[in-house]
Amino acid sequence: RKMRIATLAVATLNQWAMDFEGNLKRTKESIRVAKKKGAHYRLGPELEIPGYSCEDHFLEQDTFQHCWECLADILADNELHGILIDLGMPVLHNTVRYNARIFVLDGQVVLVRPKMVLADDGNYRENRFFVGWERSRGLEEYVLPSVVRAVNGQKKCPIGFAALQLNDTVLASEVCEELFVSNSPSIELCLDGVEIIANGSGSHHALRKLNSRIDLIRGISSKCGAVYMYANHRGCDGNRLYFDGCSMIALNDRFLTQSKQFGMTDVEVAVATVNLDEVRSFRTFTTSLNMAAAKSKRIPRVEVDLNIVDETVHHPELTKPIQPFLHDPMEEIARGPACWLWDYLRRCGMRGFFIPLSGGADSSSVTAIVGSMCQMIVKEVENGNEQVLADVRRITRGGEDYVPTDARELCKRILFTCYMGTKNSSVDTRDRAIQLAKEVGCTHYSVNIDKMVAAVEETFADMTGMKPKFSAHGGSFGENIALQNIQARLRMVFSYMQAQLLPWVEGGVGSLLVLSSGNVDEALRGYLTKYDCSSGDLNPIGAISKVDLKAFLHWGATNLGYPSLADVLRAPPTAELVPIESGEVQLDEVEMGMTYEELGIFGRLRKLHRCGPVSMFRSLVEEWKHTMSVEKVAEKVKHFFKYYSINRHKMTTITPSYHAENYSPDDNRFDLRQFLYNISWPWQFRAIDNLVEQFKQKQN
């Protein structure tokens, strides 16, 4: 008997929500590439036809109609016949909305498989748009729309949780979130003889997250024996998330192929040639697995007249196992936000980016990330990526002969920075900004904005007859804060003027996107001025911790070729908003009353561990018992919650940020909490005080 050798394909696509024209083009290209590589089955990502992030557009009838129109185009294309196609789109069945997989073969719809377990936490709100399919319903008839009937005459197809019985194997779906739940369908599918499990997914990037996805896939395929196929989006399809690719195929406990996690290729198809007999051998060898399979429930089958096994005498060479590739977290910071920014820039029609470069850690990190983006673009062009080259020419207005060969030269065209100093700024921060700009290659300006600040102060004095003073000059706390804030806010106002006019100054046209540079910890604590340079169009580091950013600066000094980042790292973080002659050193951690490391701990306990003030105090008393008294722990917890609640309103206007950290306080989508608090937290803080007394009595 010949070995059952099959070639399978997983497609990684950079789709764009509601871009039906582009999405259809990329989907069809991936099918052609899969066929060209010899695959008999092609798996695509979740909701690939409309794009995953349509959100409330999924409530519109037009979205469903346009998806079926795209599918009809695929059905009518004879070039796409001869391969089993598995793609994602929403369907309406008996007036209920479902997130579904659509199986297509030779111009016919074979099965509609609705998603059963919906993602509804963190960044996801699938229950707002869809209903999970109840597996107890079995298979039902789905009435196909007229646009499909007009193409192939097909009126109905099955819908429900089922496996495809091919002529030589059994194949079934597990859709994204279903992999992550405790009772994932893959176990049930394996026990009922399904040999190929296909997961069309929409999974976003977060720092250090990929290894958990790999572990889940390895766990399923090694525990039950299976070919596990995983296809994911890659790119920014219209919101804060960056889908990070890494489509994979695993056989039993081994990985055979993996697409890139970060990249600028719109369509990437990875294939693996597998011996399906290895699945059968694995399962029959394990007695306990056999016994469980004998008792398992029967899953409905849909018969498909397709031979997925290669029938030729000389079958393709089997794909050899690989080790899954994991980027260093610092490399994730360099590449993930860079690709997110590139997708946004090339799709929004703007001319480039503007960064208010202060010479501090945050704005320097953002500048380095854009520099990394330019390095990646140049490499893509060198590797023959025609789409990237076309996008670069369009954005830079470089003409048909322009080919970027140097990242610094490209950066000069699309990144503009400005150091906006005042009499309170130091020469050191100005020089660091200038040096980093030279290393990155961007177009850089330095300007003193004291005239602008003085004009606002004088206008206020004319209106009120009062002239505010810094505390160093005898002013009150309120005066001191107001004078600091006006400097910060004027930088934001002037940034937008520069973003609109600097391309014109340089002899070009168009406007720039303003990049803001507040990190996740400062947003959590509220250590920023509302409508200062934390405000902008996009923020690539808004969900990255200060601790990680410091490590990134150290990494980037060597690995990105920007050595001045090491000087930025050595400098103490300071806002430079108070008079230098006063001798006051304005250090971030002193003003906040907590370190950045402590802020990261508070953030994770608040969000990831769902701790209120009392629960957080209990946790930290144990964690810090060898380094801090219970009174000090109580003081720090109260201090954090006081300023978190005072400043929570700032999150309602925070700049859209690249989602990289799961304790992000982003109020708009991810961290849904009120923004008006009783900042004294009387009940909670009194409970903490009582606990402190109890601990002291135990110690005595």
Topology record:
Layout: E1 5-13, H1 20-36, E2 41-43, H2 61-76, E3 84-93, E4 96-105, E5 108-114, H3 126-129, E6 139-143, H4 146-152, E7 156-160, E8 163-165, E9 170-173, H5 177-180, H6 185-191, E10 196-201, H7 210-224, E11 227-232, E12 234-235, E13 243-244, E14 248-251, E15 254-258, E16 267-275, H8 277-285, H9 287-295, E17 301-303, H10 329-348, E18 352-356, H11 361-382, H12 386-396, H13 407-414, E19 415-421, H14 427-440, E20 443-448, H15 450-464, H16 477-505, E21 512-514, H17 520-525, H18 546-559, H19 564-570, H20 588-592, H21 596-607, H22 613-623, H23 630-647, H24 682-699
Helix pairs in contact: 1-2, 2-4, 10-11, 10-18, 11-13, 11-14, 11-18, 14-19, 15-16, 18-19, 22-23, 23-24
Tell me what you see in this structure.
This protein is of the alpha/beta class and 700 residues long. The protein starts with a strand and ends with a helix. The chain has 24 helices and 21 strands. The longest helix is centred in the last third of the chain and has 29 residues, at 477-505. α10 packs across α18 and α18 (546-559) runs antiparallel to α19. The chain has a 7-stranded mixed beta sheet, with helices on one face. It has a 6-stranded mixed beta sheet with strand order 5-4-3-2-1-16.
